[in-house]
C-alpha cells in the first residue's frame, strides 16, 4: 500500500505517503495536489470521479483518499461505499471534502465511518496538517 523510494523516509525521518485526491473540479485537484506535494512532500494521485477512484484504489491502494462529496454520476458517499465493499480498499482511510459544513451534514458523513470531514474552501498551507491530524500522521 505504501510507496516509498530508498529507505522510505523523507530525509528527516518522516515516511513518504501516497494520497488519492478525488474531485470533479480540475482546479480543486490541482490545488490539493500542489499543497500536499509542496507542504508535506507526499505523492499525490488524482481521479476526476468516483468510478475512476474505485478502479485506481483497487489496482494499487493508496495510504489515504481525499474524496469530494458532491460529484456527478457517483458521489462521495457512494464511492466510499464501493471502497468499503472491496477487501483491498476497505482499510484505506477516507476523508470527505465538502462545501456543506452544517453539523447535520458533517454527522451524516462521519456516521458513514470516514476518517474525517474537511470543509471547502480550505487553506492550502494548512491542508496537509489537517489531513495528517485526522489520520494520526506526523507531518
From TrEMBL:
A Pfam family this chain is assigned to: Response_reg
Domain Response regulatory: from-to ranges: 18-135
One GO process term, biological-process aspect: phosphorelay signal transduction system
Record keyword Phosphoprotein present: yes
InterPro entries noted in UniProt: Bact_response_regulator, CheY-like_superfamily, Sig_transdc_resp-reg_receiver
In-chain residues carrying the UniProt-annotated modification 4-aspartylphosphate: 68
Domain of life: Bacteria
Protein name: Response regulator receiver domain-containing protein
Keyword Phosphoprotein tagged: yes
Keywords for the protein's UniProt record, in alphabetical order: Phosphoprotein
Organism name: Myceligenerans xiligouense
Coiled coil start-end: none
Amino acid at each position: 500500500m505504501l510507496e516509498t523510494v530508498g529507505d522510505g523516509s523523507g530525509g528527516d525521518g518522516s515516511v513518504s505517503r501516497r494520497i488519492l485526491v478525488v474531485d470533479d473540479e480540475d482546479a480543486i485537484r490541482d490545488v490539493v495536489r500542489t499543497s500536499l506535494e509542496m507542504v508535506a512532500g507526499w505523492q499525490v494521485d488524482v481521479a476526476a470521479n468516483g468510478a475512476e477512484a474505485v478502479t485506481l484504489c483497487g489496482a494499487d491502494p493508496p495510504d489515504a483518499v481525499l474524496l469530494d462529496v458532491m460529484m456527478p454520476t457517483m458521489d462521495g458517499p457512494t464511492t466510499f461505499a464501493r471502497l468499503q465493499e472491496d477487501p483491498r480498499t476497505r482499510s484505506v482511510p477516507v476523508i470527505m471534502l465538502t462545501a456543506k459544513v452544517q453539523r447535520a451534514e458533517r454527522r451524516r458523513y462521519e456516521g458513514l465511518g470516514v476518517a474525517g470531514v474537511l470543509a471547502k474552501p480550505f487553506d492550502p498551507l494548512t491542508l496537509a496538517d489537517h489531513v495528517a491530524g485526522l489520520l494520526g500522521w506526523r507531518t
